[in-house]
């Protein structure tokens, strides 16, 4: 077993798409998806951009204001996530700052309560 400290990963700042106070630390990749730890400083923004693949942002600490193609803003907190479809233009803001995990790529993401992987039977 290995333990990961997502808060201790080396992060690099990102300013694309008008982003500010935004940094990422990559910690996993497969042929179909990549995994990154994300930090947004208080008042930080991940600017509007299209999702490369299906994408999920899961808040680990703090709070996010997220929107998709329809521009409706929703607030999510620890243990909650937002899913964007391939090509969907989206944005994430955090008035108070946050730490999150993003997985993006060829993903099957079920609805709440839906079991995507039946596991061992």
From TrEMBL:
InterPro entries: Cupin_2 (IPR013096), RmlC-like_jellyroll (IPR014710), RmlC_Cupin_sf (IPR011051). Coiled coil: none annotated. Residues 38-102 form the Cupin type-2 domain. This is Cupin domain-containing protein.
């Amino acid at each position: 077993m290995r333990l990961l400290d997502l808060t201790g990963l080396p992060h690099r700042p990102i300013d694309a798409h008008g982003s500010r106070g935004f940094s990422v630390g990559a910690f996993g990749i497969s042929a179909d998806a990549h995994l990154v730890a994300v930090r947004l400083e208080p008042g930080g923004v991940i600017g509007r951009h299209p999702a490369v693949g299906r994408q999920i942002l899961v808040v680990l600490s703090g709070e996010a204001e997220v929107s998709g193609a329809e521009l409706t803003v929703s607030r999510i907190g620890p243990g909650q996530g937002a899913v964007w479809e391939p090509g969907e233009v989206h944005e994430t803001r955090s008035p108070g700052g946050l730490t999150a995990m993003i997985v993006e790529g060829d993903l099957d993401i079920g609805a709440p309560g839906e079991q995507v992987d039946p596991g061992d039977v």
